[in-house]
Amino acid sequence: MNTPAQPAMTLSELADEHEEKMLHDLNAKLPAKSVLFGMADGKIEIANGNATLAQNPGKVFNMGEDPRLPKMPDKPTLMDFLRLRMASTMHLLQSARHARLAGLPEKTVLACLLHDIGVVGFIRCDHGYWGAQMIEPYVDEEISWAIRAHQALRFFPDESVGYTYPEQYIKLFGAEYKPEPYVVRAYEEAKNHKWYMTSRMITVYDVYSFDPNVTVELEEFEDIIGRHFRQPKEGLGWDNTPASHMWRTLNWPSRFL
Asked: CB neighbours (10 Å) of residue 244?
């Protein structure tokens, strides 16, 4: 006797099944928070692993993907990270469009597109250094240098290109704020560098308060990314470079170790 074929699941049923699996995975595994999470609330602490397990019998800590976050592909690309792990990318997209419409070289456009990935993907403090380190193995040195240097250059005007100290910074940091000595030293080193103007263009075409009424799609820069970002065939995080661990951390931000 033949068993009747089961009807195919509807999209709604598939979505419900996926959500139920995510909830089960979330309930079975405990996400971990790094010390940095608490520091933002003024706390220097880390949860004791055994004590946490004792309070949650039958559970283990998460050592892989976090089911609360969008699932990443097995071999994630830069485009995947920009879509699935980075917040407020509209600022970057608008900056890159301004640079492209101004006729700047494609490498400079890519630098504008990626100049704040340290902020939108990792942490605000020293974001130029974080962002440069993340992309260093995959781009020309000029691009990563420009992203690193823009952290200092943005605090210093350059009349030759019409760049003034941003009024938004006065609003954000107060009129009395002065850059720290290490930022001043970085500026002094950068202003005489052969790639100074590449980095300066990041500050010129930055969007210090982006327009909420303008939408730019990431696909507008897909060709530029393809030509100037060396995507590893293994996927970002799995290619064994000095920056791979940073991409893995973005992929698995709540992994215990």
From this structure: 18
